[in-house]
């Protein structure tokens, strides 16, 4: 299948087509709403064995009704839950072909996880860091790690000196940007560490989609953001901002998991079902591209070391 024929408007069904995923086993975090549910649906519909994680299993069962999958409890704001879930999967011993780290929070008011981490950095990065590393040996040679990041990484680089905003005034969007940059850097170092087994890791931007991820941002605030973006786009003579559907938003995840070549996406950042260009200069709000700092190999190594120190576990 030609991995280069898809783009912004492609859906999960466009990308996967009539692909037979029988015999493939996939883990997807965050299957109680939005992109996680659609990712699970599209893979299970093609014969993949899907294991989905959720903090609220009752909600996840409702959201995935009609989808053939297994559900496991995972609260990504609690390291004890993360470790318990990972330990159970390791004890079970069955291998995965792909792990898709999809769950997350966005622009939340200041709060901390059960372990005292700033909520967005903790949930989006640190707890996924522990979970993925603890089950990494379950991924078959030649498999994939797919980390869902965001174009919001362009809002802020990670802060290795003040990850919890102890010395910096908290800004929910800066915190979100930091966590999303951390997602990309995690994929960079994860790819370096596992590519000898043919396993490749990549991060991606799903696109702007209206899902429960935006529950901490009011409709009026979102509308104001879109109006501001459209004023800038109009001044540049460009079309107005358009949100993706959920099926379009999940397309890059399944493309990276099963369609793209590993050597193309490994250690890279993807968007709209292709590998993004690195852009150091000015970027419009809807322009494609990844910031150089998000792919910096040395920063990725430093973030890995800091993450190990923060969670008290080495991988």
The Rg value, from CA coordinates, equals 18 Å
How much of the sequence is in beta strands? 5-15%
CATH class categorisation: Alpha Beta
Q: How many domain regions?
A: 1
Major beta sheet, strand line-up: 3-2-1-4-5-6-7-8
CATH topology: Rossmann fold
Mean pLDDT: 93
- Contiguous runs where pLDDT drops below 50 for at least 5 residues: none
End-to-end distance: 35 Å
Query: Which class of secondary structure composition applies to the elements?
Result: alpha/beta
Tell the overall outline. globular
Q: How many helical elements?
A: 11
CATH level-4 homologous superfamily = NAD(P)-binding Rossmann-like Domain
Order of helices and strands: HEHEHEHEHEHEHHHHEEH
Q: Assign the CATH architecture.
A: 3-Layer(aba) Sandwich
Helix content: 25-40%
* Overall strand count: 8
Any key phrases for this structure?
315 residues; 8-stranded mixed β-sheet; 11 helices; single chain
Overall description:
The chain is α/β, with parallel strands linked by helices. The chain has a single domain, classed as 3-Layer(aba) Sandwich (Rossmann fold). Helix content is 40%, strand content 13%. It contains eleven helices and eight strands. It has helices at residues 12-16, 34-44, 57-63, 79-92, 119-135, 172-194, 219-235, 246-249, 251-258, 262-265, 297-311, and strands at residues 25-29, 49-54, 70-73, 96-101, 139-148, 200-205, 269-271, 274-275. The protein has an eight-stranded mixed sheet with strand order 3-2-1-4-5-6-7-8, with helices on both faces. Strand 4 (96-101), helix 5 (119-135) and strand 5 form a beta-alpha-beta unit. The longest helix has 23 residues, at 172-194. The chain starts with 11 loop residues before the first helix and ends with a helix.
